[in-house]
Amino acid sequence: MPGWGITGRGEAGVFPAASRSSCRPAPAPPQGRHWKAGEFPGTVDGPKSPTPSQRKRRPVESSPPQLSDRKKHWKVGEFPGTAAGPSSSKPSRTPLKNVKKKMDDRAEAKAWACTVTEALADRISSKNWQEALDVFEMLKEQTFYHPKEGTYMKLILLLGRSGQPSRAHQLFDEMQQQGLAPTPELYTALIGAYCRSGLLDEALQLLTEMKASPQCQPDVYTYSIIIKACVNASRFDLVDVMYKDMAERSIEPNTVTQNIVLSGYGKAGRLEDMERVLSAMLESKTCRPDVWTMNIILSLFGNRGQVESMEKWYEKFRSYGIEPETRTLNILIGAYGKKRMYDKMSAVMEYMRKLAFQWTTATYNNVIEAFADAGDAKNMEHTFNQMRSEGMKPDTKTFCCLINGFSKAGLFHKVVGMVKLAERLEVPANTSFHNAVLDACAKADDLMEMERVFMYMKHKQCTPDAETYSILVVAYRKEGMTDKIYALHQENPTLVPNEVVMV
């Protein structure tokens, strides 16, 4: 090995090679003497070892001192930089004592903290807000735990998505009592919690608080959340107020904000306002339209059955350099299907295959819905079978379309089969699904089964909507059951107005 002065292993073992012919054995060193750096046999001179001219010369010895002639400080193989001898069979051990025990003790000391904090993260990721708050309370009781801003942010976002804005506000106040200063992000998260629950006035009050705080000024994301809530509530007057407020603060709306307003105007049928916003986007250098803008416009005209306008805007967006995505092509398929333009619908599907766009569940749903509206049960069932053969999982809309299609074709036995298949595949049965089954029962004049489905729907806590009661009222009026209609009015006078009862 380098620095040892030997070229191989001989009788010298781990010691340096030396002449044996004319030298006498060296006397053992005095007891208690320690070796200087570089002097101990078998070690390599360190970077700071003195040169031979700087250290005292020792007489040339015939052989190195034997281990038995001096006091040993290290066992064979333990001294750093040495190798175990040829006869060494035991593995080297670390000179530190109880290392494993100390590491285990340290791990046990932190076990409680790791377990509970991980439990909190699991509850948040699984969107279980009640258990998340319980675990958070347990953590706050521990002396080692000090909640941070990020933890409050995650909990406020979770409570906002779970429809618990008041609890989110309690956490926000508690955070400030703990000495943590609010940030614009936390204020925005709390405003989003109120906006998700439709509490627009409370969200606007928080916006006023933000504007009064020098360190928590609202930004474009804050205004985008409030504008979306205004659009959902059809409060377009407040949308204009928000735009004016943003302009006074030199905050420019981004593409996301404009898309939200664009979609709101389109759904409300305010086409002139929609065109005004779209023109502003096309002229802007910082807020250019994107593929979401394209999808909003195409979906608007497609749902209205204005295929020519839809195609015109599709070509116009393409000329702006905006390329379609899978959702864009699915919108085209759905629009062509509703107009029974099956040749164009097939052409778009082939175009998707050519460009390696994968057919999705939405693609198949659009085709199934087109055949269902036409009462073409054969092609509808063929499309569904192809969908399953390609490994595509049907969703709730798939079964709604199938039930409506078989019901329109008068194949009520297949309606029963679809309901059982949906249950076997564990497809969520929402209000739309139950409405499709209720409508099928009404078309089959099976009012007893219709009432049973309605009771089962309420038992599963699936809230009926206006369409649910409309199906029931039409079925009862067809049979002259005015008492049943009156009972529905007593049950829900909002969705079954008095005018309907008196007709």
TrEMBL record:
Cross-referenced InterPro entries: PPR5-like, PPR_rpt, TPR-like_helical_dom_sf
PPR repeats: from-to residues: 148-182, 183-213, 219-253, 254-289, 290-324, 360-394, 430-464
Family: Belongs to the PPR family. P subfamily.
Region (Disordered) location: 1-102
Species of provenance: Eleusine coracana subsp. coracana
Keywords from the named record: Repeat, Transit peptide
UniProt signal peptide: none
Gene: gb12021
Keyword Iron: no
Compositional bias of kind Low complexity: 16-25
Pfam family, one: PPR_2
Designated name of the protein: Pentatricopeptide repeat-containing protein
Keyword NAD carried by entry: no
Source taxon at top rank: Eukaryota
Chain coiled-coil ranges: none
GO molecular function: mRNA binding
Regions of compositional bias (Gly residues) in chain numbering: 1-11
